[in-house]
Design a protein that fits this description.
- By secondary structure, the protein is of the alpha+beta class.
- The protein has a domain at 21-91 and 126-176: Alpha-Beta Plaits, CATH 3.30.70.
- Helices cover 30% and strands 20% of the residues.
- Strand 4 and strand 5 (78-85) form a beta hairpin.
- Helix 1 runs antiparallel to helix 5 (129-144).
- The termini are far apart.
């Protein structure tokens, strides 16, 4: 019997991704498909899917407490984010799965305690970068009705100082203008 390959661990061993800090995240569309739009003259021209990806990215702090999106760019086949974890005392708002939740509930700050099971989960779980990414990718997949939209894993980098932060901020800011030089650019 052929032995299956062992997946390489991509998270920093022993690091608590729920601790306060700044994280640079890259999430890619599966197989590099340019579903989110085109870059024309250095400017992003979103498809409907790109607009959904951006809207859900902006909404991350509404659904995932203590996570802030500091800077982002939605590119044709990937997303870059500087995400800030500020505290880890309350868990993810799984309100979208609550059948009693109204649209207003889903877009307001953490206030819904209708489902005891969900409230229990929220109280027990820590905020982590992985949970925020999982919530984001699931919401984009749900809203676009595209299954298998994302690559299975995402890339993260722990931003350690002001110099790295400024370099990454600039990279995100200039990414559309440098699209044809980008690693993820598909000819």
């Amino acid at each position: 019997m052929k032995e299956l390959p062992v997946r390489k661990k991509i998270r920093l061993k022993g690091y608590d991704y729920s601790q306060s800090g700044y994280y640079f995240i890259t999430i890619c569309v599966k197989n590099g498909h340019e579903l989110f739009g085109k870059i024309i003259d250095g400017k992003n021209n979103f498809t409907e899917y790109g607009a959904i990806a951006e809207r859900n990215l902006i909404d991350i702090p509404i659904h995932v407490k203590n996570i802030t999106v500091d800077k982002y760019v939605v590119m044709p086949n990937h997303v870059h984010i500087i995400m800030i974890v500020t505290d880890n005392t309350v868990g993810t708002r799984y309100i979208a799965s609550d059948p009693l939740a109204t649209d207003a509930d889903k877009r307001t700050p953490f206030v819904n305690n209708r489902t005891p099971y969900m409230a229990s989960l929220q109280a027990k779980s820590k905020q982590t970068v992985s949970k925020a990414v999982q919530q984001y990718t699931a919401s984009v997949s749900r809203d676009t009705i595209v299954s298998g939209l994302w690559q299975q894993r995402f890339h993260d980098y722990i931003i350690r100082n002001e110099e790295e932060y400024r370099r990454i901020w600039q990279y995100i800011d200039e990414n559309p203008a440098r699209w044809e030089e980008d690693y993820y650019f598909v000819k």
